[in-house]
Amino acid sequence: MYLKQLTCKDFRCLSEVVFVPGPAINVIRGDNAQGKTTLLEALLYLATSKSHRTNQEAELRRYGQDGFQLSATVERSDRAVVMEANWWRGSKRFKVNGVSQTRLSDILGKVNLVFFSPEDVGLVRGAASIRRRFLDMELSQLHTGYLQALQNYRQVLRQRNGLLRRRHPESALLDIYDGQLVREGVVLMHERMAFINELSRYASEAYVRITNGEELTVVYRPDTRSEDALLEALTGARPSDIKQGVTTRGPHRDDIDLLVSKKNARQFASQGQQRSAALAIKLAELALIRDRTGEYPILLLDDVLSELDSQRSQRL
């Protein structure tokens, strides 16, 4: 698939821009603070309803304006897709081919894209929450059942944490919440394991090509590894959970290890190796999405060559 046209109105520094790229490789050049990254961010927002730079959508509007409007036409192998987003004074609306969408699941997957930004080095050296967010976003685009399980899991997790903070939490109600967390959590663990196993193979191939021979392995580190183990962990941690007022076990504690030459990249890899590892993961997404959907997604690379030496830049 490829982008045919992107229109931005009052989005960040862009008052009104119509961007019409070609169907192959496009290079966006310009001085600092001219809106290069903003163009990519606009397309990411249309495809996922999320920005990679902020969770506050009010920050996305141009200074002094009450809202912003975005639209994009994307050519898929079987059809054209028109995405529209309108944010106005805290209210947002999305349309796909002119039809209003009320749920996130109605938006995700309509346009598949892979976005690399300098912040994505956090996949290697950042907190576990960054890697879980990566897993959730990618799997939600590819698997509607995963998104539903994730939304259900998060809702039950909020309810359980709220109950834990009460003076005397009801054991019977905690039992119910534990059962619901296990039911949804097993789906998350299963899909994450399958995704990482597939992603690791493609990431290893991409990393070898970028680095000319170094080895990268991506390993899923679940908090628990089975349905029975998850239930046992929730039950065993209940006394400490009540003291802390928070659920300490479950898939919301999962992580990923990235190993360069069998060493943890977060601790032992150089900046160039960490950047190369993050890029390899993004390139692995390309191949994985192609396998799942039958076509390559749109690839967005922002400031991709910084921290790479000339040889790695050329191989990339």
Task: Summarize the helices and strands and which ones pair or pack.
Elements: E1 2-11, E2 14-19, H1 36-48, E3 67-75, E4 80-88, E5 91-96, E6 99-101, E7 113-116, H2 122-125, H3 128-142, H4 144-164, H5 171-211, E8 216-221, H6 227-236, H7 238-244, E9 255-260, E10 263-264, H8 265-268, H9 271-293, E11 298-301, H10 310-315
Parallel strand pairs: 7-11
Antiparallel strand pairs: 1-2, 1-3, 3-4, 4-5, 5-6, 8-9, 9-10
Helix pairs in contact: 3-4, 4-5, 5-6, 5-9
Describe what you observe in this structure.
With 316 residues, the chain is α+β, with helices and mostly antiparallel strands. It has ten helices and eleven strands. It has helices at 36-48, 122-125, 128-142, 144-164, 171-211, 227-236, 238-244, 265-268, 271-293, 310-315, and strands spanning 2-11, 14-19, 67-75, 80-88, 91-96, 99-101, 113-116, 216-221, 255-260, 263-264, 298-301.
Summarize, please.
With 316 residues, this protein is α+β, with helices and mostly antiparallel strands.
Global morphology: globular
Rg, alpha carbons: 21 Å
**Strand line-up of the largest beta sheet:** 2-1-3-4-5-6
How many H/I helices? 10
Low-confidence stretches: none
What distance separates the N and C termini? 21 Å
Structural class by secondary-structure content: alpha+beta
Q: Helicity level, as a percent range? A: 40-55%
Helix/strand order = EEHEEEEEHHHHEHHEEHHEH
- The strand count comes to 11
Mean pLDDT metric: 94
Beta-strand percentage range? 15-25%
Largest sheet: 6 strands, antiparallel
